[in-house]
Design goal:
38% of the residues lie in helices and 26% in strands. It is α/β, with parallel strands linked by helices. The protein has a 4-stranded mixed sheet with strand order 1-2-4-3, with helices on one face. A 4-stranded mixed sheet has the order 5-6-8-7, with helices on one face. Strands 9-11-10 form a 3-stranded mixed sheet, covered by helices on one side.
Length: 243
């Protein structure tokens, strides 16, 4: 049985919650759903005032959970790799145009379009071929673009870089090994240059400080005073950088 909604205020912040009673429950349970909605599951013998007291007692936890839900990155954008879709390169959108052509697959960036030429294939094979061709194209651009940024910031920071690799990664934008080798996600060149630079500077700072200690963030601040808004934009926009 659901008893409807109730509201309490913590300072100037309201917490709205629904109450679901159960004859089987002996204690109160609080849930914060992925939507941020709050549900209280209570024994059917418990009154409103007792439930409100529990919610007030756990208000800090509820507000923290709601903030965490709001801060979650959006799910990754999924592409079907068909004409008409848009793909990003250095922050600019380009429309995809798939053309059938004999010979090997290839990608051209021309007049605001990603033109991908593939041999005649059925729908599923054509989409796979387009995806493969685009990922190869982005890998080449990452090698060129990120490579230049690495050289520039390594010079500014006075650090020596080992091998630099470019991979298609799902989770991370970059990493730094103990041997001083750097890995970069090829998807990062979908982002504006300011975010590319942030990822590069971040990984180069790991050559100085392996962890995310206060010294690490201070070193990053020295070379990139505005790193924080760049990092935040990457966090909120990164789901769009999908191949």
């Amino acid at each position: 049985m659901t008893a409807g909604a109730a509201v309490i205020e913590i300072g100037t912040t309201p917490i709205t919650y629904t109450i679901t009673y159960s004859t089987r429950r002996k204690t109160v349970g609080l849930l914060v759903h992925p939507s941020g909605d709050v549900e209280v599951k209570a024994p059917d013998t418990m009154g409103y005032e007792e439930i409100e007291a529990v919610v007030r007692q756990r208000a800090a936890w509820v507000l923290a959970k709601q903030q965490a839900m709001r801060s979650r990155p959006a799910p990754a954008l999924e592409h079907r790799f068909v004409s008409g879709e848009t793909f990003l390169y250095l922050g600019r959108q380009y429309r995809l145009r798939v053309e059938e052509s004999p010979g090997p697959s290839g990608v051209l960036l021309k007049g605001g379009f990603f033109v991908v030429r593939v041999p005649p294939l059925d729908d599923n094979d054509r989409r796979r071929r387009v995806r493969t061709a685009l990922r190869r194209w982005y890998r080449r651009r990452a090698t060129e673009t990120v490579g230049r940024v690495v050289a520039r910031y390594a010079g500014l920071m006075g650090v020596e870089v080992g091998e630099v690799r470019y991979k298609y990664l799902v989770q991370r934008w970059g990493s730094c090994s103990r041997a001083g080798n750097l890995n970069f996600n090829i998807r990062i060149v979908m982002a504006p240059m300011s975010q590319v630079e942030y990822v590069v500077a971040h990984e180069l700072c790991h050559l100085l400080h392996r962890d995310h200690s206060a010294k690490f963030w201070e070193a990053l601040r020295v070379v990139m005073p505005d790193y924080a808004p760049r990092r935040e934009l990457l966090r909120t926009e990164g789901h769009r950088y999908s191949i």
